[in-house]
TrEMBL record:
<dbReference type="GO" id="GO:0070404">
    <property type="term" value="F:NADH binding"/>
</dbReference>
<comment type="subunit">
    <text>Homodimer.</text>
</comment>
<dbReference type="InterPro" id="IPR002347">
    <property type="entry name" value="SDR_fam"/>
</dbReference>
<dbReference type="GO" id="GO:0005737">
    <property type="term" value="C:cytoplasm"/>
</dbReference>
<dbReference type="Pfam" id="PF00106">
    <property type="entry name" value="adh_short"/>
</dbReference>
<keyword id="KW-0783">Tetrahydrobiopterin biosynthesis</keyword>
<dbReference type="GO" id="GO:0004155">
    <property type="term" value="F:6,7-dihydropteridine reductase activity"/>
</dbReference>
<comment type="similarity">
    <text>Belongs to the short-chain dehydrogenases/reductases (SDR) family.</text>
</comment>
<dbReference type="GO" id="GO:0006729">
    <property type="term" value="P:tetrahydrobiopterin biosynthetic process"/>
</dbReference>
<dbReference type="GO" id="GO:0006559">
    <property type="term" value="P:L-phenylalanine catabolic process"/>
</dbReference>
<keyword id="KW-0560">Oxidoreductase</keyword>
<dbReference type="InterPro" id="IPR036291">
    <property type="entry name" value="NAD(P)-bd_dom_sf"/>
</dbReference>
<dbReference type="GO" id="GO:0070402">
    <property type="term" value="F:NADPH binding"/>
</dbReference>
<keyword id="KW-0521">NADP</keyword>
<comment type="function">
    <text>Catalyzes the conversion of quinonoid dihydrobiopterin into tetrahydrobiopterin.</text>
</comment>
<protein>
    <recommendedName>
        <fullName>Dihydropteridine reductase</fullName>
        <ecNumber>1.5.1.34</ecNumber>
    </recommendedName>
</protein>
């Protein structure tokens, strides 16, 4: 007699699934019975499937590579959620010697991943599914000490609001949300800010739990609201 198979809780794709937050999300959803795919520069061996990004010089080529990889992972299946947590931080005012280089880095790390995630959602997300992109609370105000970073994150906020419009291109009844963490408790943040009050930072497991609440539709989101506080995270919610 064939062994009984356990029904999947759902299918989720984590963009940035090898980073500190992404790896935590992959593990969290996997333990909850989800099929989990990951996209990153390196594979996450905890994921059920990986798309390893090799093209880093062109947004067009990177999109082609990732779309083909995701199509290969899913076959005919659709995703319940795409959670984009890829990105990084780089500072500098316009007078900084590395201003242009750091702005370019922010664009490739955070904006490319966000627009490609939006494209993936248009192709592979279920009706009523969820796309989350990662913005930044700081980008709601001027960011003179990190202009490139703030500019890119503000663009992500705009992207989410545009995707929330019925003409934004997402599947029927899908949601586009931006999570706006302030400071995540990651090893790199602790390295660069050793004297900060780490007790005020958002733990990575809290972020994973918040995202699962969003995916299940159990989070206290109110249609049309902009700054919902959810366990230490700020969420900009834009329903389709």
């Amino acid at each position: 007699m064939a062994a009984a198979t356990t029904a999947l809780a759902g299918r989720v794709l984590v963009y940035g699934g090898r980073g500190a937050l992404g790896a935590t999300i992959v593990q969290h959803f996997k333990t909850q019975g989800w099929w989990v795919g990951a996209i990153d520069l390196q594979a996450n061996d905890q994921a059920h499937g990986n798309v390893v990004v090799s093209s880093r010089t062109s947004l067009v080529e990177q999109e082609k590579e990732i779309v083909a990889g995701v199509k290969g992972l899913l076959a005919e299946s659709k995703l319940d959620a795409i959670l984009c947590v890829a990105g990084g931080w780089a500072g500098g005012s316009a007078a900084a010697a590395d201003f242009i280089a750091n702005t370019d880095l922010c664009v490739t790390q955070s904006l490319w991943s966000s627009v490609i995630a939006a494209r993936l959602a248009s192709l592979f997300l279920k009706d009523g599914g969820l796309l989350t992109l990662t913005g930044a609370g700081a980008a709601k105000d001027p960011t003179p000490g990190m202009i490139g970073y703030g500019m890119v994150k503000a663009a992500v906020h705009h992207l989410v609001r545009s995707l929330g419009d019925p003409k934004g291109g997402l599947p029927a009844d899908a949601f586009a949300l931006a999570i706006l963490p302030v400071t995540l408790d990651t090893p790199m943040n602790r390295k660069w800010m050793p004297k900060a009050d780490h007790t005020t930072w958002t733990p990575l497991d809290t972020g994973s739990k918040c995202l699962r609440l969003l995916v299940h539709g159990n989070a206290p989101l109110v249609t049309g609201t902009q700054n919902v506080i959810l366990e230490g995270w700020v969420v900009v919610d834009t329903p389709v």
